[in-house]
Amino acid sequence: MSNAPLMPMATAVWLVENTTLTFKQIAEFCKLHEVEIQGIADGEVAKGIKAYNPIISGQLTREEIELSSKDQSRPLVIKSSDIEITNSEKKIKKYIPLSKRQDKPDSALWLIRQHNILKDSQIAKLVGITKNSVTAIRNKSYWNYNNLNPKDPVALNLFTQKELVDAIEKAERRVKREKKQKEKAKLEQQASN
Is the model's pTM score more than 0.70? Predict the structure, then answer.
């Protein structure tokens, strides 16, 4: 990847208008020919191009421009910023066909039986049903409880295996934390007696 600034011609226009840099320094920085920079200064080149401030975009600093303005042999150095690119796509609820919607309570029952450390709210979030429905299934008071058949929600493609593992790990951390708090409270109670 070249080290040229974004919009080199517009950046060159801004540098010509707002700095005392030499044409050679601007040309080297913008990866343009020195004659083009001369043409920009004379108003013959880049007539309709709006100036682009490289300081605002974070490609140059005021100090860098001042250092190069004082020393004509010093080239401008573009400020390299490592941009961290993350995949932060929001999870969009995918459409579940009517024929598959009965699978949600079945999946909730499967999770309750297989991973009973998961909280009702975690199961509800994973499967995509209400917490009240999960609680009703856990208490066997769900309106259609007798007709439920536990089904693996990952196999039904309601969510991924990674999401299930993450939820289980979170539940395990919560259980450990609660256990430590109980032990701490028990020790404090014994110490006070």
Answer: no
